[in-house]
Amino acid sequence: MSLKRYHQKRRFRRTPEPKGRKAASAQGHLYVIQKHAASRLHYDFRLELDGVLKSWAVPKGPSLDPAVKRLAMHVEDHPVEYGSFEGIIPKGEYGGGTVMLWDKGTWQPVGDPSASYRAGKLKFVLDGERLKGGWMLARMKARKTEHGDPWLLIKETDGYSSRSEDSDDEGSESVVSGRTMEEIASQRNAVWSSHRKKELRAPSPLKRIGSAASRQLFASAPGARKTALPKAFRPQLATLVDRPPAGDGWLHEIKLDGYRLLAFIRNGRATLMTRNGLDWTAKFPTLVEALAGLPVQEGMLDGEVVVIRADGTTDFQALQGMLQNKSAVPLHYYIFDVPYGEGYDLTQVPLLERKEILNQLLSPHVDTHSVIRYSDHVLGHGEDFHNHACSLKAEGMISKDVSSHYSQRRSPQWLKIKCTQQQEFVIGGYTDPGGARTGFGALLIGVYEGGRHLRYTGRVGTGFSQELLGNVMKQLRARETSTMPFKDFPKDISRRGVHWVNPELVAEIRFTEWTSDNVLRHPAFLGLRADKSPHEVIREAPKPMSEAAAASPPKGRSRRKEPAAALPSPFKLTNSERILYPEQGITKLMLAQYYQTMASWILPHIVRRPLTIVRCPHGYDKQCFYQKHVMEGLPPSIRGVRVKEKHGSMTTLVIDDLDGLTGLVQLGVLEIHPWGCTEDSLNKPDRLVFDLDPAPDVPLNHLIEAAQLVRDLLEAIELTSFVKTTGGKGLHVVVPLTPRVSWDELKQFAKQIAGSLASHDPKRYIDVMAKSRRAGKIFVDYLRNGYGATSVAAYSTRARAGATVSAPLRWKELAPKLDFTSFNLNTVPSRLAGGKSDPWEGFATTRQSLTPAMIRQVATLNAKLLRG
C-alpha cells in the first residue's frame, strides 16, 4: 500500500511518469492495462485498491480462453495518476520504452477485495474498453529458484470468454489517444494526460497533398491522427429529447430541413453521399463546383443541403421538386462538421475545436452569396435558443456536447429538440381520388415495430400540389401489390377503393399530435425521403433530457470507445467500428444495417426457431466458433428455449425480432443456422432441405443439373421447392411444409431422395459424408433434416471472404455463368429494392404436407423418373 518502491525506482526529473501519491480515498475502482515495450514487450495490468494501483506484469497479455492461465508477475504499487500515463519512458530509466493505454475502465470485486488480495485469490468483473466479464488473479507458490511474486491471470467462463481467441493484438490502438505503439514512439515529446487540455504532438512528415495552411490547420488539431480518407463512413446522428440541455457545455444550431450529405473530397473533387451511402453527386453539380473552390485536396465535410425561403426558413418540398423536375432553385450547403482533412482523422478532436477549424477553412471563401455556408452556433442558453428557433418557424434545434468526439452512430452527445411534430412514415397504400381530384385521395402510412411489422398510423391527403400528385402517383403505381403490408387492416378506411403498395417509399409528414388510437391528427405531406430506408422508420418518442444526460459520459472520461451504435431499435451496439470483413471494410455497424434493411426478408426464416450461430468477434479471418446454448452475458433481446439433447436437455438460443437479430450482430455473429422447425413445434419440422455440396473439381453445370433433378423428383410427388445459394460453393433445395410428420419420417424421406440420385449416377452423386469418397462428386446431404440439425438461413451472411450471403434464387436464374460470389452483403439488398419481385415469391404461402403415402411411394416414383 506504500509507493516507496515506486518512487525509489524512478528519477522524476528524467522520466515523464507521474510522481503521484497514495489517494486519500480508497473507494475508486479504476482498471487499466498499459502495453509496455521495455526490454521485452509485456502488458501492465493494474487495479485500483486501497488508494493505489495494484500492478502485475503479464508477459503474453490477457487471454479470453478460460483454459489459458497467463503468468502475471506482481510488481510495485503505482499511483492512481499512473492510470492516465501514455508516452515514452526515456532510455536508461527504469522501464525505459513506449507505453500505450491498451485498455481502461472500471472493475468490481467479488467479495472483500482487500481480504481476497491478501489471501492471493482475487476475483473481479471488468468493464473496460476491450476486456469485460469475470476474471481472477491467483497467487502461485514461487519455486526456490524463482524471484518475485508470480500470480496467474485467468478468464472466467461467461459471455465474454472464448475458447479460441486471445485479446492480444499487435496492431491495436490506444483506447484513449487512438495512436499505435509506433506513432507514440515516433513522437518523442508526446505524453498523453487526461489532465492536460491539449496533447503535445510532434507530427511526423507527410507528403504534401493540400495547401500548406489548410494542412497545418488539420495537423495541429489536438487528437488528430494520420490516416487515409475512408471509403465508407456513417454520419453521426442526434438523439431526440424533450427539452434543450442546460449549461455552457453545449452548443446549439438551427435544425435544417433538407438532405444530409457527406462531401468526400479526393484530389480536389467532391463526391456527395447520403447518410445511407447513396451517391448523389450528379444531383448537385453546383455544390460540386463550389466545393472545388475550397483549399482542400483531400477531406470530408458533413452538412445539409437545403432550399431557403425568403423568410429564412428551409423549404423541403422545393428541394424535392428540384430533384424530381431539375427545376432551378437556389441551393445552399450548410456545413457543420469536418471529420477528415488532408490526411488527418479529426474524429477524436473535440467538437468545438473541429468547428473552429471548419470556420477558419471556410471563412475566406464564404459570403452571403455563396452556395457553401458555415453552420454557425450559439454556446449555452439552450432554452432561449429553442424559443427563438420555434419563433422563426424552424423545425427545431440541434444541441451538441462541445467536448464530444465524432461518432458514427446515433449519439447522446448530439441531441435534437423539435418545435413541430414531424417525422418520416412508410407508405403502404393509397385510396382512390374523390371529386375533381386526380391521382389518389390519400396516402396510407405507417411505422415499423420491431423491424418486422408495419403498423398503420393514418392517412394523409393534404400538402400536395397537382404536379406533386402526379409525381407521387407514378411511384405508387410502380409498387402496387395485392398483399396488404400493414399488420392489421386500417379501421378508418373502407375496403373499396384501396390499393396496396410495397412498403418502399418513405414520406416526411407534419402533424399536430397522436390520437389515443395511435394515429396522426391533421397530417400534411411534406415530401418523399429517398435518403431513408423504410425499416429505419419507427415512431419517434423524445427521451427525457435527464435520461439522455445519463447516457452521455461525464467530462474527462475517455470517449474513444463508442458504446452505442445507432439503429432504429432500442438495442445498443458496441464496438461499431470493428472491421468484420477487411477486404471490403465492412464494420459491425454496416452488418447491423444490412440486417436492418433485410429484416422483413430474413426474420421469417429465423425468428422463434432454435439457432446455432457462428461468432467471429474480430472478423471472419480471425478465430470463429459455434454456439447454440444460452450463456451469461447475452444481450437481453436473445432468449432461450429448452430442447432435448442426448444427455438431458439444454437451453438453445432463440430471437423474436429485429432487436434479437441486432443482438446477434452485437455478439459478432456472421452466420445464422436455424432449425427446420419453430419452438412451438420442436418435434414437427416445417421445411425440408437438401444441401448439394460439390467437390472442388465439380463443374457448375453439374451442380445446377443436380438441383434441377431434385426439383423434378419432388414435383413428381407434387411438392414445390425453392433454391438458394449456400453462401459458399453449393446450393440448397428447400421445401416449405405444414408441420405434420416427425423428424425421423422427414429424414427417411430425404435419405430416399439422396439414395436415388446416388444409385442413378454413382459417378456424379454420393449420399455418404466420407470426404475420401467424394472426389469429383456432389454430396447430396440429407442429414440437415434430423432433430437438432441446422442449415444456414436465407439471407444470412457467411464467415467467408467477400461477405457472401445465402441468397434465394429464382429457378430460372440457375445458369452455367452464375457467379455465387456476386451475392454478398453489398449486392443482395438491391435485388429486392425498388419493387423487384421476391425470388422466393410464394414460399410463405405454400401449403403442402409430406404425407405417409408420399414417403411410401417416393422410391417407386424416383425409379420411374430416373429411368426416364
What does this 3D model show about the protein?
The chain has 868 residues and is α+β, with helices and mostly antiparallel strands. The protein is built from 17 helices and 43 strands. An eight-stranded antiparallel β-barrel has the order 1-2-3-4-9-8-7-6. Strands 10, 13, 14, 15, 16, 17 and 18 form a seven-stranded mixed sheet that branches. α11 packs antiparallel against α13 and α15 runs parallel beside α17. The relative contact order is 0.07. About 6% of the residues have low confidence.
Give the overall average pLDDT. 84
Q: Uncertain runs with pLDDT below 50, 5 residues or more?
A: 164-171, 188-210, 553-570
Biggest sheet character: 8 strands, antiparallel, barrel
Spatial strand arrangement across the major sheet: 1-2-3-4-9-8-7-6
> What share of residues is helical?
10-25%
Separation, N- and C-terminal Cα atoms: 88 Å
Q: Report the count of strand segments.
A: 43
CA-atom Rg in angstroms = 31 Å
Shape: globular
Output the number of helix runs. 17
**In terms of quaternary structure, what is this?**
single chain
Going by helix content, strand content and strand pairing, the class is alpha+beta
The amount of beta strand, in percent, is 25-35%
